[in-house]
What we know:
Elements: H1 27-38, H2 42-52, E1 57-62, E2 77-83, H3 87-97, E3 104-107, E4 122-128, H4 137-147, E5 148-159, H5 165-176, H6 179-182, H7 192-198, E6 201-210, E7 222-230
Amino acid sequence: METAPPRCRRRSCPPRAGRPRIQGVTIVQKWLVRRARLGRNPTVDRWFRSLVDGTGGQVVEIGCGVGLLFRYYPPTVGRVIAIEPDRASRLQARSVAAGLPQPVEVVDGGAGGVLPIADDAADFVVCPAVLCSAADPAQMVREIDRILRTGGQLRVLEHTLSGNRVLAALQRLADRCGWPRFFGGCHVSRDTEARLAGAGFRWLEVEHGWFTRAPFMWPSGPHVRGTAVRARDTADR
Length: 237
C-alpha cells in the first residue's frame, strides 16, 4: 500500500491528514490544483456534469489527478477505475474516493502509454485533459480503442487548437516556447477532434468553449467537450 511522502525536515509543515503534498508536478500545476479546490467555477461545474452525464456500468477515467471529477459521476455508474501516474495525486484521489457512494478504484498506470485495463473492459472511457498532455497521443488513442467495449463511448474534455487562425498560431508558438514544460506536458495546439476522427472515432456530440484559471493562461483557453464512438461500431446501424 502506498503511503504519504515523508515529511521534509527543513522549513516545512507536515501534510494535512488525507491530503499529501503534490509532488512530481510543476509549481504552476500545484497552484492550479489549489485554485480548483478553493471554489467551484460555474463553467467547469457545467462541463464536468456534462462530461459524465449518462455514464453507467464500468467507467475508466484516464488521468484522474486528485479526483476533482469523482463527485460528478451519476448513481448509474457501477464502478470507476481511475488511472493516475503521479503517486501523490493518487493518494489524494484515494482520499476523495473513500467518501463516495459508488466504488472508485484509483490505480497507477498510463505513464508508459499502456493502460492497466483488460481489452473491451470499459463501458465508458473518460478523458479529462489527457490527450493534450500524453507523451504519445496516438498510442493513448489506440489504448482507448483497445479497452472500450463494442458500443461503448469515449467522453473527452480537452484543451484543443483554436479555430481562430491567429490564436492557433499563438498556441503553436506557446508550445514551441516551452508551455508543455511548465504545465506537465500539456500541449495547447493539439487538434483533439481531428486526431480522434483520424483514428476511427465518430463524434456524436461536440461543444466548444473557453475557460482559463488565470489571464496568463489564455493559450489554454480553447476547450472541446464531446462524446465519440468507434465508427466501426456504428457502421451497420
